[in-house]
Write a structure and sequence with these properties.
By secondary structure, the chain is an alpha/beta fold. The protein is built from six helices and eight strands, in the order H-E-H-E-E-H-E-H-E-H-E-E-H-E. The protein is globular.
Length: 179
């Protein structure tokens, strides 16, 4: 059984990789409230289910995708239990042959390792190479849950804060898709 910490409402002080500390510092700077937990690395949606229960929300599934030529990149965020059908998404965004981006590209583009993909990692995409795609159900939800750029912690925040404070600050737009 996965060990999960108590809920915290402040950033970790130490013990985390720089991306995690920087992520929480940015959220604090933007005045975004959050609740967070620490846990063993959770790199599957099954592992995230117990974490979701502690946070009282569903952790989102975040997938870094690319076209066949690896010239267009997409970060798809969607409900953890919703199936991902490439054909449906491809038609909506006008890109054929989507596949998962290689792990080393994930680190270069969004500062996250495989299994840790996060919308919060878009803060590292200074060149806006990654297009954020958000499933309508996630976009319209009151709460948003994700990893803070590493999969040994999870947090929840108001989706409105993500959309109206975080994304504008890092100069990223969102494209809403129906999966």
């Amino acid at each position: 059984m996965m060990q999960i910490s108590s809920l915290y409402t402040t950033a970790p002080i130490s013990g985390s990789v720089p991306q995690v500390l920087e992520t929480f510092a940015l959220l604090d700077t933007l005045g975004i409230s959050y609740s967070r937990v620490e846990h063993e690395p959770a790199d599957t949606m099954e592992a995230c289910a117990a974490i979701s229960d502690v946070l009282g929300i569903r952790i989102c599934k975040n997938l870094l995708l690319c076209n066949r030529q690896k010239t267009n990149f997409y970060l798809l965020t969607m409900p953890e239990d919703k199936p991902f059908v490439t054909k449906e998404l491809s038609a909506q965004i006008g890109s054929s042959r989507l596949s998962f981006a290689p792990g080393d590209m994930m680190e270069d583009l969004i500062g996250c390792t495989p299994g840790s993909a996060s919308v919060l990692g878009l803060a590292y995409d200074k060149e806006n190479r990654v297009r954020l795609l958000m499933d309508r159900e996630t976009y319209e939800a009151e709460w948003f849950g994700c990893h803070p750029c590493k999969n040994d912690g999870s947090l929840k925040m108001k989706t409105a804060d993500l959309l109206n404070k975080f994304l504008p600050h890092i100069c990223h737009d969102v494209t809403v898709v129906d999966l």
